[in-house]
Amino acid sequence: MGSMIYAEAARQRGDVIRFMISLETIGYYRNQKGSQTYPPLLKYFYPDTGNFIAFVSNLSSRSIMKDCVRTFSSVTDFPVQSIATLELVPGVTWSDHLAFWRHGYKAFMITDTAFYRYPYYHTAQDTPDKLNYEPFVAMTNWIVFDAL
Question: Could you tell me the pTM of the whole model?
């Protein structure tokens, strides 16, 4: 895993990394009820419509993630959900931000929730025609113009 090698080398060099944002599947949105699923129990706290972007962190990265959610929400009306939780929740560690957590850096993931919403995740049917470009552009404008 390239991110693990990078984060380990950064820690060994003493690099100051304020935080890392991992973008993990961010282009699939549905306005139909029932289009969003979750790990056990989370379905009681989050919407069942897959039209939002999720910011996901562990507990030690919670404050920086929440700051970014506030910034995101202040410049766009794009639907957003967030969670800071334990790493044992299925899906929370399944991207490159995990490498940074393992090496003591703050990090969080921005995701459309991958396989909890996107039926083509990591399959041969995962092709560009499945993406929803209008919401994808609306969400990524924040990353390019406001977050950085």
Answer: 0.94
